[in-house]
Amino acid sequence: KKTVDVDATIRSGDLSPIFTWLADNIWQKGSLLTTDELVKQATGDVLNAQYFQVHLKHRYL
Asked: Is the residue at 19 inside a domain?
């Protein structure tokens, strides 16, 4: 799967690679797939609250 280095892209100020990825992997398929299918296809994993918990711990603790 093609991924985007979000941090480097934001630092460069050119967000077009992020928007291209979103268009190809999310927006274009959003009405064709269920939320679970879309998350699995975009990330390679099922929706998991543990990822969000880890993010919150790293960000706020």
From this structure: yes
**How many domains in the chain?**
1
Span 14-34, pLDDT tens digits: 999 999 998 988 888 777 888
> What are the structure tokens assigned to 37, written together?
């299918």
Residue 36, in any domain of the structure: yes
Write out the residue range of the structural domain in which residue 31 sits: 6-60
In a domain, 1, yes or no: no
Alpha helices in the chain (DSSP H): 6-12, 16-22, 35-43, 49-60
Type of residue found at 46: V
Residue type, 27: W
The SS3 call for residue 48 is coil
Contacts of 12 (CB under 8 A, 6+ apart): none
